[in-house]
Design a protein that fits this description.
disordered N terminus; five-stranded mixed sheet; alpha/beta; 24 helices; 564 residues
């Protein structure tokens, strides 16, 4: 019977039989709790396998495999057994990192397959032959992978698949075929929404089960990663330093130093803007003051055109970063949902007074002579006539570093709502990568190796790929006066953005269009539509679309019991 047929048959399962086996499994665990981990896991896997066979015979869905894993059986439980995760209190244990030398002693010579995607920026694989005469990021990726392999004694095998916003269903089918054909996967690193869909359908394991290897408090993950990605008590995917795509696609506030520093009427200087960021005073009010009254009618026709100089140039959906940057959420994750469809719900922020206020304020700028909604925003900004643009920072490499541009530019995070807001919040463009552990192998050692790979990739990326992304976007040039201090200021902004990356669950799970939920607010802001009226008609539809993901993740939370 095929997996989709098993899912359809799930409603017909005899739940009393399942409950019987769950109770028996729990009894075994309680009895064996003080035994060695490996022996316990062997018992669990035999029990689960037996239950799975019974469920298949009864027409049960494949997801029942996970529901037969009570919390005590999950491979995350720490013990004093020699089979516990290698840890160290010595000098090599940097930032809470597991002891790689002990890991290598145990697992050296193993191979791990990494299902990844043909990402918009190079992220995964580079060979020694390819780095000769290549770009710096290629060399950095090669160096990162080499360090990971040598430190862990593991061979990395990359399986690249075509993936993007329109390929989620295709990749889901591919993953299911791999499982059913007996060719399980290990690490999964795919387009952001594809990874979220795989998690929703039970194909990614909770990373918190492997806390001996993955420490989400480590600095190579965004500071809010646990809060942002916790669904039903579990985290299924991560990003951060591990993903070059994520860093390139961070949405930032890029400003024209020449125009600001040479025009006293603007009221700011480059240094004053950097100071605002450092003092936690870079807010929406300051941004409105900076950009809200500037217009240079360069073609002298008396009306705003794309050729004019404006205070803010952007393109519709990049304005979502202002929504999230102000501390607003799209969905709420309920810690104690009263029912399965209430685990993930539409946030009250979405139609709240703050969302309405910000949309209107941005709309005033974007529909005045001081703002321009421009699909070629970076091209026009590179001419040097605008004060600022809000775009993905990769556009710096595409346009501002071209031979035709000698613009002195700087980088700031998206402003906070006000000074009471604790942190800046950075939104990456949707085509970023999220990494997770496949649930298909049913082999604890393979799962551990996958967890270690993810942690090591993030750790070594800090000294290889991440600084190279910055150096690519902010190279040492003769254009920039006082280049050392200027690059230091921009590096501080880059690091602030990297630390404050936020992953709203709604962006991942709701896709009524290519842009999804958040784009409706951004569109209203760009056009100064009445967001109160638009959200009132939209919210019921969006709430309905969340029920499926909510119920799926609720079921997973009952299967994968959250760690204590």
């Amino acid at each position: 019977m095929k997996k989709d047929e098993l899912r359809d048959a799930f409603d017909g399962i005899d739940e009393s039989i399942v409950e019987k086996f769950i109770r028996e499994d729990e009894r075994i665990i309680k009895h064996k709790k003080e035994s060695r981990r490996k022996r316990t896991l062997a018992i669990i896997r035999r029990t689960v396998a037996a239950c799975l066979c019974l469920c298949i015979a009864a027409g049960a869905g494949f997801i029942i495999r996970n529901s037969l894993l009570p919390s005590e059986t999950a491979p995350h439980e720490s013990t004093s057994s020699p089979d516990s995760a290698p840890t160290s209190s010595g000098a090599d244990n940097k930032e809470g990192l597991f002891d790689m030398s002990l890991f290598s002693e145990k697992y050296s010579g193993r191979s791990v397959n990494i299902l990844c995607w043909d990402s918009e920026h190079q992220e995964f694989e580079a060979t020694a032959n390819e780095i000769i005469g290549s770009n710096d990021i290629n060399e950095a990726i090669f160096e990162r992978n080499k360090k990971v392999s040598e430190a862990l004694g593991i061979k990395l095998a990359f399986n690249v698949q075509d993936d993007d916003s329109g390929k989620k269903a295709t990749i889901l089918a591919y993953v299911e075929r791999c499982e059913s054909s007996g060719e399980p996967l290990d690490v999964i690193a795919l387009y952001s929404r594809t990874s979220a869909l795989l998690a929703q359908k039970g194909h990614l394991l909770p990373l918190n089960y492997y806390h001996d290897y993955i420490n989400l408090s480590n600095p190579w993950y965004p500071e809010s990663i646990k809060k942002d990605t916790d669904i039903g008590g579990n985290t299924y995917y991560v990003t951060g330093d591990i993903s070059t795509n994520t860093l390139y696609l961070m949405v930032g506030f890029i400003f024209n130093k020449d125009l600001i520093d040479k025009n006293n009427d603007i009221g700011y200087t480059s240094d004053s803007l950097y100071t605002l960021v450092k003092e936690q005073k870079w807010t929406l009010e300051e941004m409105y003051k900076l950009v809200g009254s500037y217009w240079n009618d360069l073609d002298a026709n008396g009306k705003k055109t794309e050729a004019d100089g404006v205070g803010l140039r952007t393109y519709t959906y990049h304005l979502e970063s202002v929504y999230f940057g102000a501390g607003l959420s799209m969905v709420s994750i309920n810690s104690s949902p009263p029912s399965a469809d209430k685990l993930i719900t539409l946030s009250s922020d979405h139609s709240g007074s703050k969302a309405i206020e910000i949309a209107d304020a941005l709309g005033k700028i974007m529909t005045s002579n001081s703002g321009y909604n421009d699909s070629s925003a970076a091209v026009h900004f590179s001419l040097g006539n605008d004060i600022s643009m809000i775009l993905r920072i990769r556009d710096i490499e595409k346009f501002l570093l071209s031979e035709s541009s000698n613009l002195r530019y700087g980088l700031l995070p998206i402003p906070k709502y006000d000074t009471e807001q604790k942190n800046y919040i950075t939104t990456p463009g949707i085509p970023f990568t999220q990494w997770g552990i496949s649930s298909s192998s049913r082999d604890y050692d393979r799962e551990v190796i996958s967890a270690a790979i993810i942690e090591a990739m993030g750790y070594f990326a800090q000294s290889t790929t991440s600084p190279t992304v910055f150096d690519t976007l902010f190279p040492e040039t003769e254009i920039e006066e006082n280049n050392t201090q200027a690059r230091k200021n921009d590096l501080e902004s880059f690091n602030v953005m990297k630390r404050t990356i936020s992953l709203d669950v709604g962006r991942m799970l709701i896709f009524p269009s290519n842009f999804g939920l958040y784009n409706d607010w951004a569109t209203s802001a760009a056009k100064r539509q009445n967001w109160a009226a638009v959200s009132k008609s939209l919210d019921p539809l969006l709430s309905q679309s969340l029920k499926g993901p909510s119920e799926d993740f609720y079921g997973l939370s009952q299967s994968f019991k959250p760690t204590k």
